[in-house]
């Protein structure tokens, strides 16, 4: 049978349609998605930009000691041959703490006593009978245990905000979960050249019989307070080409990349110096999938 020109043309048209249909993307039912438009919408979480107070702080370790603690040294080198006190003993100025024998082989036996320079309590007695000492060896420490203080060291990089009167909260190993309040009473005027740190001292705000000299403490010291500043979660910030950006949510559920200037970060919060205004919404999770103009759906909105 001979094909007419019309029939050949019809077959060609049908074949073309079949080819086009075969190349079209399929929907979930396996049918050509001729009337379905794929739309890429990213699910995100967000927060509202608000003003708040941001408190900077330092964490450090320290030890409880008696106030006005004085180290006691012998006047001569030798060996300790007798001690007259024990840890916690109360002494008066002039009381004998220990006897030192400065004799050398072949010399006549002699004795030199180490006496208390002040009234107080023995808070440290590190040496035992038979120990050799010199005039630079600490034999004991005497202090006033009725007024306790905390001694700590702050690295040189953190000393800028230190000043008398700053508040701190203190926790003791012996009482987990119990918080004691304290304040800075003294800041050393010099930086130790070996440790590159400053000594800082605290007084407890109230006397508590549970606190003893020699205890180990953990300290959280409040330093600079930034009042009424714009701040956002650090997770909302991304870095592009060395600059800081956030994604601001628009009314049409799209986002705009906005450059921001960052201030101090404390824990998971960063102060925003410029680039945002109070009340705007920024993306906090899902940032990696976003570009400027992306469509979004806020989860939990």
Structure summarized in a few sentences:
This protein is mainly β.
Explained architecture:
This protein is mainly beta. The protein is 6% helix and 50% strand. It has one helix and 20 strands. A six-stranded antiparallel beta barrel has the order 2-9-12-11-10-13. The chain has a four-stranded antiparallel beta sheet with strand order 6-5-3-8, with no helix packed on it. A hairpin with a 2-residue loop joins strand 14 and strand 15 (243-249). The longest helix is centred in the N-terminal third of the chain and has 19 residues, at 5-23. It is elongated. 18% of the residues are buried. Mean pLDDT is 89; it is low at 27-38.
- The mean pLDDT is 89
Report helical residue fraction.
under 10%
Summarize the helix and strand pattern as letters.
Answer: HEEEEEEEEEEEEEEEEEEEE
Give a quick account of the main beta sheet: strands, pairing sense, barrel closure.
Answer: 6 strands, antiparallel, barrel
Tell me the layout of helices and strands:
Elements: H1 5-23, E1 41-48, E2 50-72, E3 78-83, E4 90-91, E5 96-101, E6 112-115, E7 120-124, E8 132-133, E9 140-155, E10 167-172, E11 179-187, E12 197-204, E13 216-233, E14 238-240, E15 243-249, E16 255-259, E17 261-266, E18 269-274, E19 281-285, E20 295-298
Parallel strand pairs: 1-20
Antiparallel strand pairs: 1-19, 2-9, 2-13, 3-5, 3-8, 4-7, 5-6, 7-9, 9-12, 10-11, 10-13, 11-12, 13-18, 14-15, 15-16, 17-18
């Amino acid at each position: 049978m001979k094909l007419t020109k019309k029939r050949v043309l019809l077959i060609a048209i049908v074949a073309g349609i079949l080819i086009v249909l075969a190349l079209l993307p399929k929907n979930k039912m396996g049918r050509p998605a001729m009337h379905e438009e794929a739309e890429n919408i990213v699910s995100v979480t967000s927060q509202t930009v608000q003003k708040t107070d941001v408190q900077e702080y330092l964490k450090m370790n320290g030890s409880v000691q008696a106030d006005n603690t004085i180290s006691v040294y012998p006047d001569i080198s030798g060996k300790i041959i007798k001690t007259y006190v024990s840890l916690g003993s109360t002494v008066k100025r002039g009381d004998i703490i220990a006897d030192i024998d400065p004799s050398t082989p072949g010399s006549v036996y002699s004795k030199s006593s180490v006496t208390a320079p002040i009234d107080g309590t023995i808070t440290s007695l590190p040496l035992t009978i038979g120990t050799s000492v010199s005039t630079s060896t600490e034999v004991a420490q005497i202090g006033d245990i009725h007024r306790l203080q905390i001694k700590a060291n702050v690295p040189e990089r953190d000393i800028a905000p230190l000043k008398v009167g700053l508040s701190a909260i203190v926790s003791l190993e012996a009482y987990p979960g119990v918080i004691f309040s304290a304040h800075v009473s003294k800041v050393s005027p010099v930086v130790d050249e070996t440790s590159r740190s400053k000594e800082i001292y605290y007084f407890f705000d109230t006397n508590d019989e549970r606190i003893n000299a020699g205890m180990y403490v953990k300290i959280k010291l409040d330093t600079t307070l930034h009042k009424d500043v714009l701040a956002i979660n650090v997770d909302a910030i991304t870095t592009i080409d060395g600059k800081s950006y956030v994604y601001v949510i628009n009314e049409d559920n799209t986002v705009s990349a906005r450059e921001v200037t960052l201030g101090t970060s404390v824990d998971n919060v960063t102060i925003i110096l410029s680039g945002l205004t109070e009340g705007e919404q920024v993306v906090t999770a899902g940032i990696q999938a976003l570009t400027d103009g992306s469509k979004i759906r806020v989860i939990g909105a």
